[in-house]
Amino acid sequence: MAQPQRRQPQEFQNPRELTQEERDAAKARAMGNNLHGYSKDEKPKEKPMPWRAIGLAGIIFMVCLPFAIRAYRGTVKDMAASKTFGAHDAGEDEA
């Protein structure tokens, strides 16, 4: 199996030292060129109240409410008629 030719390691060269101006410029770039405090000049933008979504949710709730009430009342009547919760006939003796 043929091995590719490997390069010889090169001499290590120290990176050149940055001047103070270059360090300051790099720091400014890293900070997004915004060296002053956030709260000094800019206020965060407030999102407007989502009135359209609130109104849509209210309309959906008002449309569904009568159907939910009708289903609840029907279920309560069915459960009361069948006496499912712990009620038993008094005429039967348990032996």
Describe, in plain words, how this protein is organized in 3D:
By secondary structure, the chain is mostly helical. Helices cover 49% and strands 0% of the residues. The chain is built from three helices and no strands. The chain has helices at residues 20-30, 38-41, 51-82. The N and C termini lie far apart (92 Å). The mean pLDDT is 79.
Which strand-content bin applies to the residues? under 5%
The helix count comes to 3
Q: What is the number of strand segments?
A: 0
Overall body shape? elongated
Low-confidence stretches: none
Q: How are helices and strands ordered from N to C?
A: HHH
The radius of gyration over CA amounts to 39 Å
Biggest sheet overview: none
Ends distance:
92 Å
| Helix content estimate | 40-55%
Question: In oligomeric terms, what are we looking at?
Answer: single chain
Task: Give a topology summary.
Blueprint: H1 20-30, H2 38-41, H3 51-82
Structural descriptors:
single chain, 95 residues, mainly alpha, 3 helices
